[in-house]
Amino acid sequence: MKVLLLSCSTGGGHDSAAKAIGEKLTEKNIEWVMLDPIKLSSESFSKKVNNLYINVVNNNPNLFKGAYKLAEMYGTLKIKSPIYAINKIFAKNLKQYIEDNNINIAIATHLYPAEILTSIKKKDPNIHFIAVATDYTSIPFWEETNPDYFVIPSKDLINEFTNKGIDKNKLLPFGIPISPKFCSKLSKPVARKIVNINNRKKTILIMTGSMGFGNIESTVDKILEKYTSTINVIIICGNNKDMKDKLESKYKNANVIIKGFTNDVSTFMDASDIILTKPGGLTSTETAVKNIATIFTNPIPGCENHNANFFEERKMAYVSTSDELSLKYIDILLNNKDTVKDMKKNQTKYINKNSTDDIVEFVIKNYN
């Protein structure tokens, strides 16, 4: 059996979801390969798509918000989108790759490869693939894809997906796949020793996503002003080197640890009492599985607003729209054990920590 994992580098969450499935396939001694199908046809076009996404999200979020709303409206027209038309261009090379490499099943953790596979499947019904949603909503254009099955983040979203016209019999509410390392937990003293922070202080972790999204300086300033030297502050900037350099310069004499991209996110989470993060689908799931008191800030307009709302409605996280509100929620989470206990209880209730196992077991059972 050979599995093809397909993603697209517009944000790190889609890649992380695919890699998580790959890690679990490796545990099961199943051969797999991961790629961005657009790169098969054009490395430069793939890079342009990625750069355009990052530039719009970071520099003009209102434009991204408008485009997302427009896409949502377009979905009501019940006709194939321009996104589908563009992705059809890459179908020939992906189909050839699948045939040349004897792929049994493809798994797409991003809309674009799911669109490409849908185009292939339209002409060749022997092509099999599973789509994996990595946000707590049915994003625009999922409804025009045609996978064998559709992994969605929660059974609570079944009606939302079926209302878009997706066959209920295809829906697998397993959850968003996360790396196995997030399913285990180090004790705080051990984790804090590894990341070299004061074990006696409460710790706040601030995450900006793989792209380093959002203006977090004012939030950090107010946290440091209020709590002075009584807490540890850790900031993870992802791949945003400019943000990292700027923060390192500004806080070089403060009680702040600043990291760029790191493979130790799991350990930093274990070391923390509270996390402030933008509500990406993967990060949201990871924090819930880790049972960390969570405050969502700086959502990328569109799907991340839906993620935040999903968690807030189920009391798995707070959603902050200002520095003042963030400080209020930090105060509550630092001082009210019952609130933290209830938040963690709801995280355990609504989020499946075994999602990756469930996906892989389903693949083995149905495609081996």
Q: How many strands, which pairing sense, and closed or not: the largest β-sheet?
A: 6 strands, parallel
Mean pLDDT figure: 89
Q: What is the C-alpha radius of gyration, as a whole number of Å?
A: 21 Å
Cα end-to-end separation: 6 Å
Work out the strand percent: 5-15%
Number of helices in the DSSP assignment = 17
Compute the number of strand runs: 12
Query: What is the N-to-C succession of helices and strands?
Result: EHEHHHHHEHEEHEHEHEHEHEHEHEHHH
* Bulk shape: globular
Uncertain ranges = none
- Helix proportion of residues, in percent? 40-55%
Describe the structure.
The chain is built from 17 helices and 12 strands. The protein has a 6-stranded parallel beta sheet with strand order 2-1-3-4-5-6, sandwiched between helices. The longest helix has 17 residues. It starts with a strand and ends with a helix. The mean pLDDT is 89.
Characteristic key phrases:
single chain; 368 residues; alpha/beta; globular
Overview in brief:
By secondary structure, this protein is an alpha/beta fold. Helices cover 50% and strands 13% of the residues.
SSE layout and pairing:
Layout lengths: L1 E5 L5 H16 L3 E5 L1 H5 L1 H17 L1 H14 L7 H7 L2 H10 L4 E4 L2 H13 L5 E4 L16 E3 L6 H6 L7 E2 L15 H8 L6 E6 L9 H11 L3 E6 L4 H10 L5 E4 L5 H6 L3 E4 L3 H10 L2 E4 L6 H11 L4 E2 L3 H13 L1 H14 L4 H13 L1
